[in-house]
Design brief:
Layout (H helix, E strand, L loop, with lengths): L2 H9 L6 E6 L4 H12 L3 E7 L1 H11 L7 E4 L3 H13 L5 E4 L4 H8 L13 E7 L7 E4 L9 H17 L6 E5 L10 H14 L7 E6 L1 H5 L1 H6 L12 E3 L3 H14 L3 E7 L5 E2 L7 H28 L1
Parallel strand pairs: 1-2, 1-4, 2-3, 4-11, 6-9, 7-8, 7-9
Antiparallel strand pairs: 5-6, 5-10
Helix pairs in contact: 1-11, 4-5
């Protein structure tokens, strides 16, 4: 395992395996991912899907399912519905995507009466180790919100700050990206960046230090920021990169991965529980890293809930 995963795994030390509803783990990648996470002590998987398909995959892969709870459903849609219900009723603390399509799972997640929605918008956060950068880097949103408006970005920003807190970053620095570092009405993302900074000043976003708009070079390089005479505690030292839209975020994250040899974990947050959306292309280490991030975040959220109950 890489140092990136080892560091995430270390943050899980002392935490019990997190009960996790795994929706439709009916191929080798998704079933092995859940089983590997269980072996690492990260997850306590509840396998939800057509029993004959799950057992066929287990037999082909030489996996003993005797220690796992298995809930049989007729098809993938029913598996998604049941897995979401297990999280909603508190049986599971994490939701994990199996071999069904992401849209099928998220359809159930987004149901108003039976899903996992809260007043906060759901968003995806990549947690990345980029070898050419001096610390952990969070990139959001590269997978869920296609064209987020200002209100959406407020939630996307707050979600990422909350995850940074769970990872031990006390006051994360948020760089709000655009093509330029000046507010320009012809580039709406610069106006929204400025508005987000003022929202933070007014307490509408809490727990982080925001600056924007910042072009990528100013966000990632203190030298570039100095050349352009940008006075900022955030520039050159960001913990979180808030991108203008999904296309920009997706391209950015993949550039880090394929051009800078970055390692990445990713989860969806903003709902009742974290959601692990792994890709078939993810390595075993990447899948385990995503599981570790979900465990860390779920434990942190549970701690906040327990503290609120104690105060109440």
């Amino acid at each position: 395992m890489s140092q990136f995963f080892d560091d995430l795994h270390a943050k899980c030390e002392g935490l019990p395996p997190m009960p996790t509803a795994v929706a439709h783990p009916c191929d080798a990648v998704s079933l092995c991912g859940a089983v590997d996470a269980a072996r690492e002590g990260l997850l306590d998987p509840i396998l939800v899907g057509p029993e004959h398909k799950i057992r066929a995959v287990a037999e082909a892969e030489g996996i003993d399912l005797s220690s796992f709870r298995l809930i049989s459903t007729k098809h993938s849609h029913a598996a998604a519905e049941k897995a979401v219900s297990l999280v909603r009723d508190g049986t599971a603390s994490v939701l994990m995507k199996g071999s069904l399509h992401t849209d099928e799972l998220m359809h159930e997640v987004m149901q108003k009466e039976t899903g996992l929605r809260t007043e906060r918008r759901l968003s995806h956060v990549y947690v990345m180790h980029v070898p050419t950068y001096h610390k952990l880097l969070l990139v959001t949103d590269a997978a869920i919100n296609i064209h987020p408006n200002l209100e959406d970005k407020r939630d996307i920003c707050q979600n990422a700050i909350d995850l940074a807190h769970a990872l031990g970053i006390a006051k994360p620095k948020v760089g709000i990206l655009s093509a330029v570092e000046t507010v320009t009405p012809k580039i709406p993302s610069t106006v929204e960046a400025a508005a987000l900074c003022k929202m933070a000043d007014r307490g509408q976003i809490t727990g982080g230090l925001l600056d924007g708009p910042l072009a990528f070079d100013n966000a990632i390089s203190k030298e570039a920021a100095d050349i352009k005479h940008i006075r900022s505690e955030v520039a050159g030292d960001v913990d979180i990169m808030l991108v203008p839209d999904l296309e920009a975020g997706n391209i950015l994250a993949k550039q880090f991965t394929f051009l800078a040899s970055a390692e990445a974990a990713g989860i969806v947050i903003g709902g009742r529980a974290p959601i692990i959306l792994t890709s078939r292309a993810d390595s075993v280490a990447a899948r385990l890293a995503s599981c570790a991030v979900a465990v860390i975040f779920a434990a942190a959220q549970q701690g906040l809930q327990d503290a609120a109950k104690a105060e109440g």
